[in-house]
Each structure stands twice: as structure tokens, then as C-alpha cells.
Amino acid sequence: MICICGPSAAGKTLFAGLLATALENAGIQATVIGCDDYYREHWTPDPLFGFDTVEAIDADNLIDDLNALRSGQLKQRRRYDMGTRAVHWTPLDEGCDVILLEGAYGPQLLLKSSPPELLIYLEESLAVRALRRLRRDTRERQRTVASVLRQMLRQMIPGERRFIKPLKEAADVVVTRTDRGLAEAVVSIIDLCSSQETH
């Protein structure tokens, strides 16, 4: 299992997709699991951090699904609707050699109990992330500019300091440029897969 973490709008989902494609081109089948799909259904936001906290993630379901995926037993992919805060499922029928778990909140839950073979941390400036988040949340989540900015200042930034920044120190790879980081991640994963095949 490979974890791709980092602050909000750092490009984790895009990076995970690019990484999955690059691994497929190298003959390694990867399944991407998004931690955002494991937000608790109809959860009451934390008074300080809102949804920008590890507590917002349904840890039991995330860990159960990862274990089922590892053993080839997971047949449905969990999905979370950010607008309605409701959970639904879609079919998952492909097997995989590598699990790419991407998300801001979720990887923290695994570090002690089931650490990933590789932890990748994505960095991006706050200004770029703010623009990305404004564009995404107003278009895809039907939020107002004011509500996005308010959440960023009051909840996102404090949540990142508390829960996400410590992951950088534990990371095996820190990505500051997608092209270089992608190449480094692919080589590291190929090496991991090769070493496991020889044991």
C-alpha cells in the first residue's frame, strides 16, 4: 500500500491518477482509494476543525475496506457525496498489485497499525492551493466564495497544521514538482514490487 498525502488542493488526486497510469504502463495494476470517500455519513462537524480533522474519517470502514482490497475480497467501492454528506457504493471488480490511498485525512490512521510501504507527501504553496480550492468548491460543490474562504481560514489551515504537516516528516518521498516526484515514486514502487517478488 502506498499513501499519497498532503494539504488540501495540493494535487493528490491528480498525482494518484498519473501514478496509477504510469504504474500500469510498467505492468503494475494499481487501485486508487480516496480518503474523501470515507468521511462519516451525516457527521456533525468538529467545533474547531469542521471536516478538516482525522476524526471526520470513518476509520473502521476505511481499514476494513483496505484489508478486504488487499485480500481480493472488496467488491464495492465506497463513495461520499460532499453535497448531501451521504454514502453510496459503486462496483469494484478489478484486482490490483498496489493500493494507492490518497487523501489529506486518513493516512494518519494507518501509520501505527498498518503503515504503508511508501508515504508520499505533496507540497504546494498556499496561494496555488487556495485558487484550486476556490475553483473546485464553487464549481463541483456549489459553495460560495465567502464560505470557501471562511472554511480555509478558520478550519482548513488549523487542521493542516495539526494533522497533515506532521506527515511530511514521516514521508519517504516529498514531491515539490509533479514530474520529478512522479518519476521517483514510480521507481520506488517498482523496486518495492520487485523486492517482494524475490522473497
Polypeptide structure, described:
This protein has about 200 residues and is α/β, with parallel strands linked by helices. It has one domain: P-loop containing nucleotide triphosphate hydrolases (Rossmann fold, 3-Layer(aba) Sandwich). Helices cover about 45% and strands about 15% of the residues. The chain is built from six helices and seven strands; from the N terminus they run E-H-E-H-E-E-E-H-E-H-H-E-H. It has a five-stranded parallel β-sheet, with helices on both faces. Strand 3 and strand 4 form a beta hairpin. It is globular and about 50 Å long. The relative contact order is 0.22. The model has no long low-confidence stretch (mean pLDDT about 90).
Q: TL;DR of this structure?
A:
By secondary structure, the chain is α/β, with parallel strands linked by helices. The chain has helices at residues 12-25, 59-70, 107-110, 126-140, 145-170, 178-197, and strands spanning 2-5, 30-34, 76-80, 87-91, 98-102, 118-122, 173-175.
Task: Supply database-style keywords.
about 200 residues, alpha/beta, Rossmann fold, five-stranded parallel β-sheet, two-stranded antiparallel ribbon
